[in-house]
Amino acid sequence: MKLFELTKSLMSIPSVSGEEEAVGSYLRDHLESLGWTVELQSVSETQNNVIAYLNDTPRVWLSTHMDTVPPFIPPTEDDEKIYGRGSCDAKGIIAAQIIAAEELRRVGVEDIGLLYTVEEERASTGAKVANHHPIAAKCEYLINGEPTDNDLAIGSKGAFRAKIKTKGKAAHSAYPEQGDSAIEKLLDILEDVRHTKFPNDDFFGETTCNIATLDGGIALNVIPPHAETGLLIRLTTPMEPIRDALESLIRERGELEILSYSLPVKMLAVDGFEQKVVRFTTDIPHLGNWGQPLLLGPGSILVAHTKDEFVLKKDLEIAVGLYVNLVKELLTAETQSR
Ligand SMILES: [Zn+2]
Fold first, then answer.
1. Is the pLDDT of residue 135 over 90?
2. Cα of 218 to ligand 1 centre, how many Å?
3. Extended strands (E) in 13-111
4. CA of residue 338 to ligand 1 center, whole Å
5. Ligand 1 centroid to 57 CA: how many Å?
6. Nearby residues of 230 by Cβ (< 8 Å), 6 or more positions away
7. Looking at 120, 121, 146, 329, which residue is catalytic?
8. Burial readout 23-35 (b: 16 or more C-beta within 10 A, e: otherwise)
9. 338, 241, 314, 336: which is closest to 88 by C-alpha?
10. Which of 103, 204, 216, 248 is 20 to 30 A off residue 256, Cα-Cα?
11. Helix, strand or coil, per DSSP, at residue 203
C-alpha cells in the first residue's frame, strides 16, 4: 500500500485514546502481510501496543502513538493535503515510518523495529508498559515521531499535570456569612498562579502554565462547598521546583494533587538535519529503556489537536526519506550526543 493510502486507511479507523484496539489489529494484519513478526503487547483488556521486527535484535526502532485526541474527523484530501484527525498526529507518521522501513528492507537493512503505543495523548500509558518489554534492552536508538515540521528535535519540554482543590462550607446564598466559598478561595489561588514566575531554562526555554479546567459549586443559591482546577505546566526544569512553587503559593487554602509528570528531555543530534527544541512532550520520557532517543516527524504541532488538522502530502514524502537517512546514519556513521 502506498503512503497516502496507508495514511488514510489508518485515519479512517477511529482511535481516540482508550479505543485503539481496532487500529492496533489493522496494523498487526498489515505488517504481518508484509512479513514482519508482530506482537500485540497488552496494556489493558482492550488496548495493545504494536511491536514489529524482522530479526531478534533490532538496533534502531521507529515509533509513535496510535491514539488521537477527540473527536474523530474522517480523512479528506486535495492535491496538496490530507485533512482529518490523525493526519499529522500521528497516523501520517506511522504510514511514513512503515514505508521508510519497507524501503530500508529493500536495500537489505533489517536491523529495524516498529513500536506503536496506545494512550500517548493522556499519560503515555502504553509507553510506560512498552518500556518493560525485554526487547527494549537490545535497542540502541529510538526514533520517535511527532509533528516537528520534519526538523530533528534535540529537546522537548516535559509536562506537569495537576489539580488544585479547595474546600468551603455550603450555606444559603442569602446568608453568605454562614458559609465559606470554595470558588472564591480557588480564584485567589489562581490569581497567584497567574502572577507566579516559574523558573525557566536556557536550553529548553520558558516554563508555561495552562489553567485548563475549572469546576465547582452546586447551584446559584448555594455558597459553593468545593471547587477545583486542572493545570498543565510545560516543564523546562526538574519537577520539584514547580511543585514547591505551587505548594508555597497555595499554602493552607487548598490542596495540590499531582496527576502525572514527564521531564524535559535532550535528544540525539545528528549532523545534516535541521535542529530545534519543541515545546510539547512525547512518549520519549517514558521509553528510557529503548536506547538513545531522537524525534522527527512531518506536519505541524500547531494544527495537531485542532479541527483543521492536516498534513502536506509533500511533507509525508520528505519524512520517508528523512527516516530512511536517519536510520542509515545511525547504523553506520559516527553521531554526536549532546
Ligand atoms: Zn502526537
1. yes
2. 36
3. 37-44, 47-53, 60-65, 76-77, 81-83
4. 24
5. 27
6. 161, 162, 163, 212, 213, 259
7. 120
8. bbebbbebbeeee
9. 314
10. 204
11. coil
Q: Average pLDDT, stretch 257-286?
A: 93
DSSP single-letter state for residue 136 = G
**Calpha distance 263→273 (Å, rounded):** 24
In this prediction the pTM is 0.87
Domains of the chain, each with CATH number or no CATH: 3-156+266-332 (3.40.630.10), 158-262 (3.30.70.360)
CB 162 within 8 A of CB 257: yes
Residue with cell 480523512: 75
The amino acid at residue 149 is D
Backbone phi, psi, residue 218, to 5°: -125, -50
Report CA dihedral (214, 217, 219, 223) to the nearest 10 degrees: -140
d(CA 56, CA 133): 13
Q: Residue 337 — very low, low, confident or very high, per pLDDT cuts 50/70/90?
A: very low
Partners of residue 66 on adjacent β-strands: none
Alpha-carbon separation of residue 101 from 129, 146, 147, 168, 334 (angstroms): 24, 17, 19, 58, 21
